[in-house]
Amino acid sequence: MKTLLLLASLMAGMTACRKGASSPTDDKPGDRLSEQKTVNLSVDGYDRSFILYLPLGWNNAGKMPMVYVIHGGSGTPEGMIRLADFRAIADREKVVLVYPAGIEKNWNDGRPTTPNQMGVNDVGFFNRVCDYMIANHPVDGARIYATGISNGGFMSSRLGCELGNRIAAFAVVAATMEALTISPACNPPRPVPALYIHGTTDPLVPFTGGVMTAGGTAGGTILSHAQVVARWVALNRCNATPAETDLPDIASDGTTIRQRVYSGGANGSEVVSYVIQNGGHTWPQGYQYLPESVIGKTSLDMNGCEVIWAFCKRFRL
């Protein structure tokens, strides 16, 4: 059975680690409990949905930042919550989370995915959700961010290119950018801070780029990790020479991580690269959703959610 089909069946069966309201601790009197619910919208004639998470005390938090957390191909919002659970961060820092659902469990990231072949305007969908959230919830329109893995990571790159007027910063895990149409046309209206995390032995999205041949039939031609980082360094006019740091090997799990920070970009923008030596198609410290023999190693040397939030929260429109 193809890897993609195996991934689809497993991701479809995932459920969130926790559901419903959390318990207030030392927050302000009158704080409301956290809320998690599914929101349905009609966009361009399609029935669309997303899981919305409002953090503990959201009613007393004022205008809050918002993060799109975008599932991979054949994934679901529920599965993405289990893989990349930002809810503890949301409660601590008062962040609204949106876990959106793709058409046919996929995104039009520029590669020949099912939504791409159907002509689905996913950039328009995310723009519509921005409007909805700002109009109906206490969301700060200057602090909206996007992150995702695999197909959701490619989609995050596309949002950085084409929705830079709404997305203040974005972060990509186990993905780069489509090379033939999205990258050449990428011209955001402002510098967009970008972070990329990629394993050198990712069996589904090749670290070295090129034509994708594993993980199903979507295929497509993609930039390498080095190429997509260089693309955003040029777009943001960052320093071409990064500050390099090897993160502590705290887990002895067969992986190590090198951080490269390209600072000094226009309007204070920045590009950050995390190269996970021997890392697979995985989220750092995330759920090992398939065996290592299928998707490779999950690095435990850093917490992907914490690193992504620490990066994104420094930027605003």
What does this structure look like?
27% of the residues lie in helices and 23% in strands. It has one domain (3-24, 31-312): Rossmann fold. The chain is an alpha/beta fold. A hairpin with an 8-residue loop joins strand 11 and strand 12. The strands form 2 sheets. Strands 1-2-4-3-5-6-7-12-11-10 form a 10-stranded mixed beta sheet, sandwiched between helices. Strands 8-9 form a two-stranded antiparallel ribbon. It is globular, with a radius of gyration of 18 Å. It has 10 helices and 12 strands. It has helices at 3-12, 77-83, 87-93, 114-118, 122-136, 151-162, 182-185, 225-236, 292-295, 304-312, and strands at residues 35-43, 46-54, 64-70, 96-100, 139-149, 169-173, 194-199, 210-211, 221-222, 243-246, 256-262, 271-277.
Q: Give the distance, in angstroms, between the N- and C-terminal Cα atoms.
A: 45 Å
Order of helices and strands: HEEEHHEHHEHEHEEEHEEEHH
Q: What is the CATH topology descriptor?
A: Rossmann fold
Q: Supply the helix-strand structural class.
A: alpha/beta
Low-pLDDT segments: 1-26
CATH superfamily: Alpha/Beta hydrolase fold, catalytic domain
Helix content: 25-40%
Number of E-state strands:
12
**DSSP helix count?**
10
Strand arrangement, largest sheet?
A: 1-2-4-3-5-6-7-12-11-10
Nearest-integer average pLDDT:
91
Overall radius of gyration: 18 Å
CATH architecture: 3-Layer(aba) Sandwich
Strand content: 15-25%
Kindly provide the name of the CATH class: Alpha Beta
How many separate domains? Answer: 1
The biggest beta sheet is recorded as: 10 strands, mixed
Shape: globular
